[in-house]
Amino acid sequence: MSNKNKFSLYGLPEKVEHCSKCLMTNQKPFSVNEMVHGVEVKKFGLDIHEDGLCSACHYADKKKDKIDWEEREKLLIEKLNKYRRNDGRYDCVVPGSGGKDSGMASHILKYKYGMHPLTVTYSPLLYTEEGLRNMANWINIGGFDNILFTPNGKVSRILAREAFDNLLHPIQPFKFGLKIYPIKVAMQYNIDLVFYGEPRSEYGSEDPNKVDKPGFGEEFYSIDKDQSELYIAGMPINELKKKHNLSDNDIEPYSAIHFDKLKSKNIQVDNLGWYLKWDPQSAYYYAVENCGFQPDDQRTDGTYGKYASIDDKFDSLHYFCHYIKFGIGRTRLDASQEIRNNHIDREEAILLAKQFEGEFPERYINDCLQFLNLKREEFWEKIDHFRSPHLWKKENNKWILYQELKELL
Ligand SMILES: [Zn+2]
Question: Structural domain of residue 197, as residue ranges?
Fold first, then answer.
């Protein structure tokens, strides 16, 4: 990495500030636009306000008592009345893979509000057994039509490896598909409404000032630049194509939608979690009840839960990479969300983090390394290369996060 600022590798603040309510810090980066995500992109992180709380906690307080949820549901019903079709065609796309949130979103839209969703799945890099079972149950027990798109595995492997090497973010190219493919399907089927489930604010990945509206802006899935100006896996597209001898067709699943192509359409991309009070735990119970969703029989590596993001063998490695780059692992993310939703308190969260935060994703690591064509030694070299010096230092041959909460040191 040739980042100019060698101290804080990703441009995040050099002094780590901790939220006094949840376990987030100001190092939690907001999602960046993946299409222009080169290695030098500066990241912006969660704000810690003067009262000591992070913006995600502020948003959660607002969700609790400052939002008129009856009024929001009225807005939802008005919107659905406008888009509902009774001519046999689909009237909305629900992207998902049969996890708890897409399960609940699609089921409520179809069976409570009388919509006719087409569910759309962009295949995970490496399905887990649980993921495949939940996917099948979503369709067969939940009762939905579904389009499953699986991109060329040879190309996926090349891109995942580049994204690991350049960004320590192996699932970054997959995220393109996740965001863009459902919109492409909506365009093909002339469907004007796309509904995601979980609100983007739950995990602090989005600037709460931007998420306080129901929909995603066009910049979420489209761009007004030529392809030659865009990036995949942290590399300019043309460089990537040349290096691996990839054709335009090889990278089609990752190609952005140009703004111009959207002009003739009026596609709305919304979050059901903006209209209805959403809580990941309730979504889990709902999906078990209505879509045959089953949790894993083992605890997920790196955290204490068994039911969130369990469909891709790469999920745990992804969160481990997040922990290396930002000092924030999966336990912290899960526990912080649960504090905000009043399921656990801060003391319990700290105990969980002591036990599981930063745990190595052993269960599926061999599958992931094989997919990436990477040896363990090379893997650790890369990992250490992405530890930002303002977060990590080596003491007695052991890496420590030296600006960590004192309870966790
Ligand atoms: Zn917080």
Answer: 69-275
Q: Is residue 325 part of a domain?
A: no
The neighbourhood of ligand 1, an ion, using CB within 5 A, equals: 19, 21-22, 24, 54, 57
For residue 406, how far is its CA from the centre of ligand 1 (angstroms)?
A: 17
Please write the tens of the pLDDT for every residue from 247-293.
Answer: 999 999 998 898 888 888 889 999 999 999 988 899 999 999 999 99
Ligand 1 centre distance from Cα of residue 314 (Å): 27
Output the pLDDT for position 263. Answer: 82
pLDDT tens digit sequence for 189-244: 999 999 998 776 666 677 666 667 788 888 888 888 888 889 999 999 999 999 99
CATH number at residue 124: 3.40.50.620
Rounded to the nearest angstrom, the distance between the alpha carbon of 342 and the centre of ligand 1 is 12
284 occurs within a structural domain: no
Ligand 1 center to residue 12 CA distance, Å? 17
> Quick check: pTM over 0.85?
yes
Give distance in angstroms: CA of 320 to centre of ligand 1. Answer: 21
CA distance 328 to 41: 19
Ligand 1 mean position, distance from CA 3 (Å): 29
Domain count, the chain: 1
